[in-house]
Amino acid sequence: MLEKQCSRGFSHTRRPSDAHSGHDTVCCFPELFDRPLVTQFDLANASSDGGAALLKVADARLGLIEELARSVRDERMPGKVDHKLSELLSQRIFGLACGYADCNDAGRLAHDPVHKMLVGRDPVLGDSLASQPTLSRLENAVGPRDLYRMGETLVATVIDRHRLRLDRMCRQVIIDLDPTVDPTHGAQQLSLFHSHYDTWCYLPLLGFLSFDDEAEQYLFTAMLRPGDAPDRLGVLGVLRRMIPRVRSAFPGARILVRLDGGFGGPKILDFLDDQPRVDYVIGFARNSVLARSARRLMGKARRMSRRRSSPPPAAS
Asked: Where along the chain do its domains lie?
């Protein structure tokens, strides 16, 4: 846009080519500023994803991608491997984080200097990154056991980080489980029609941890489920594995489980009732049976709320 403006009648001068880069630069609006405003539009080895360097710093502190790579069995022939498993995972994960959801994007990102740096290669002189077929083979090679181990790695990384951050001084740990719609396009396996969302989709289950009164939530699991999956699918398994882990890491904290109304089946409620030092909140939709059963308790809750919100009597 700036180059177009400079060419549409605004006063500008063209400077000689830079002796080192060989590129022309444009000096815009010389009559407005006492110093040259220089623009250059053909910078070599440029990238629009410079902010992704922060992702590299975060992962270097967590060590998550290296741990995920150790969770996957690499059955490739060593003599024919050009890209280590950790490099492939880094390329795919950082690409997703930068908004490149499709493996086809690998074709134009293979030479991007920032993405090469994220994988640990020299931004300019380093070898190109993996191609789309290589990344697709990686995704298809990962099996259920690999995925389970990767899920365990994510849980352990999240819990260990916050156990060290909070030094176990935590009063309450909150576990939130939520389904989310992921619309699909094409004929992917398990892509099924969901009438509530009125689309063909997956219906993954996401789990988040939060601590005390902190607003930030931390993803600890993401379970892919078919588009027509019932809300309760997989929830009990996640809770059975997660609650003992949280209790071991934060022995002095109470655990609060928050669920949508669709999760409120008898098996899940019975399981939560049997857990010591575990509270739960389930967002049931209002109905006449529930309102009638809760009438006495709701009246008590309203009276307590009024007493707490009323001002104290004036001192005589």
From this structure: 2-39, 50-141, 144-309
